[in-house]
Here is the input.
Amino acid sequence: MKKILQIGLGAAMLFAVASCRKTYEDEPLDRLTDDYIYDEMDKNATYAKLALDNIYSFLPNGFNRISGAVLEAGSDDAMSSTPGHATETFTNGRLSPTNNPDNNWARSYQCIRRANVFLSKIDVVPTDEQQKIYWKAEARFIRAISYFELMKRFGGVPLLGDRVLTINDDLRIPRNSFDQCMAYVIGECDAILPLLRTDIATGGDWGRITKGAAMALKSRMLLYAASPWQNPSNNPEKWVAARAAADSVIKYGKFSLNSNYANVFTTRSLPEIILAFQRGVTNDVELNNGPVGYTGSLLGKGATSPTQELADAFPMINGQPITSATSTYNPADPYKNRDPRFYATLFHNGMRWLKRNVETFEGGLDKPGGTIPQTQTGYYMRKFMANHTEGTAYSTQTHNFIIFRYAEILLNYAEASNELGDVTNAHKQLVALRKRAGITAGADGNYGLKAPALYSVTEMRDAIRLERRIEMAFEEQRFWDIRRWKTAEQVLNGQLNGMKITRNATTGVFTYTKVPVKTVSFNASRMYLYPIPYDEVIKNDALTQNPNW
Here is the structure.
């Protein structure tokens, strides 16, 4: 499956090869019908493979996908470096049924339809039967994750099953409940599990849906269902199910933490990666998010400004929070001796990059002032980039957007274990992540954490949420986590802050001052769900709008 997800390819090639299929033109060749794609004479399944590849192109993707910004620019972890950017819709109260920069309703149902067509047609193609078993299971997985992507935005949505709707069908389809949609997604994950490839796929199959991907989707789905968002009474049975799903991935034994945290995001095939959106090697992440003070081919757009709140979340190298009396944090030298993930996630003033130090002080090369987009907070996003500390060019790198990785599974397991009162097992997962990160063990071997017996469930919950924020930064987790935890109303009402840095012209000494940068607001009465798009409600009068929209 070489470069399977570089699909502008899929549909384009389907059109391009049409003229090779028949010696006469019995219909316009600018439109390829299902009869061409699913052909009982196509023993190599050439066109069916392209159709499946096109379905793969609907898998969740990330990086700068929201009008050139990362999704977390609409959370408390970052903001766009361009004032007035579309991502502010999530933090200024202007989200509406006609104004949503992350509206994926039509795209998800387009994917679901294409998967249903594929499943209804593929059996006529005379290719290898085992291959068709894999393909059908893969299409069902992508259909299931498309429903999950809808659910985390809109709640319960219409379930279509295997139906391929036509204009002659009644298209006034009501919404199913969240629980019905969840049962469908979980049922699909369970049904396809024995039909998928075993991990770890290698070579031409890297990037295909595997058993691990199905188990990981089930884990995430059940975690969301157990969270306060869908479990306000904190029903322990939901946490039992979430814990079991994460545990099944751990016991599967095919995945492990990579020894180097930063390398996870620039390597195509690793035991930590369960599923990633496959892309060709590029330098677009660097060019979109790199500091703005370089020139020529090194000129970055600096699109992402991480917040001081995110910077302060990272502990010291000994694992102690910066507020701890034993942390050795120095406000006059705030970036010294921090958790190594800090340096893999954020550009800060004085950090070495492309043969010079980053200058995010006032008037510095990377914060020059004026009207060009530049950091609003004193930071730029560093995550997902290769090491260009002493480089002279942005070489192309693997930048596959990771959909599921093993670290998330450990965090899922920790969260569910803690909610069931098993603080010790939750603690064990955080220790594993901190050890891999490079935090020092300390005399007690707890990597900056207290001993398990000293934590209450509430305290451990806070520790897990903090670790998840640090470990999964900019991976499109935080934006949804603060919604499923129902904490968005706390962290997105008030001020988001940055660091104002000034340099003494005589001594060169820097002064660091935390300053408010942006006022944010979150309406808890309605914003935990997106509004269903206006045009969808108008077209389908059986489709009820979400509350208070």
